[in-house]
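Lecture notes, part 5. Sequence design as translation. It can be helpful to think of inverse folding as translation between two languages: the language of shapes and the language of residues. The source text, in structure tokens, appears below.
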């Protein structure tokens, strides 16, 4: 009736249960290993993403620093360019001023030359007047003393040197007397 082989099939053998448990345990371990592997891959991917983020942030900061330095350099260049433009404008203004001063200097030199010529002419005229006045006083003295021959001789000397017109025509004293030229003409008229 009872077949022993039937009973064995109905009840699994302890070795087969053991092997199923091992298999189930291995499957769990495999699943756990896969989960741990996936978790490790996830952590590695997360770590790589974090590393990439940090590197990108660092690169962005370097780019920002480079751009800041470039902008600062451009500002410095613009400032230097503005300084150069100001210096160029100052140079232009100074050159125009130098031109004006050179023109003024030329005018002043021309005036100085003209005044030097005028001074030389006046010096010559003064020298002639002094010589004429010296002869005039001698003529007047000779006339007053009645030495008419000496007076004529001095008048001829005055005429030969061309100093007749060098005598002052106006009196510098307020005594209502003749000017030296008028007195000379008076003596001339009496002698000739």
């Amino acid at each position: 009736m009872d077949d022993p082989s039937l009973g064995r099939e109905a009840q699994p053998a302890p070795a087969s249960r053991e092997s199923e448990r091992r298999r189930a345990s291995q499957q769990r371990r495999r699943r756990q290993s896969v989960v741990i592997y996936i978790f490790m891959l996830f952590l590695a991917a997360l770590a790589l993403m974090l590393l990439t983020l940090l590197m990108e942030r660092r690169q962005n900061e370097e780019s920002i620093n480079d751009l800041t330095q470039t902008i600062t350099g451009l500002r410095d260049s613009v400032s230097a360019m503005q300084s150069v433009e100001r210096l160029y404008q100052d140079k232009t203004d100074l050159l125009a001023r130098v031109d004006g001063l050179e023109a003024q200097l030329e005018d002043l030199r021309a005036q100085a030359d003209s005044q030097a010529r005028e001074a030389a002419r006046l010096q010559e005229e003064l020298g002639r007047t002094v010589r004429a006045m010296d002869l005039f006083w001698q003529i007047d003295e000779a006339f007053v003393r009645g030495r008419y021959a000496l007076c004529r001789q001095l008048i001829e000397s005055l005429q030969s040197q061309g100093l007749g017109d060098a005598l002052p025509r106006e009196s510098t004293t307020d005594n209502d007397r003749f000017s030296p030229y008028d007195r000379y003409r008076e003596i001339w008229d009496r002698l000739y």
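The translated text above is only one of many valid answers, since several sequences can fold into similar shapes. The radius of gyration is 66 Å.
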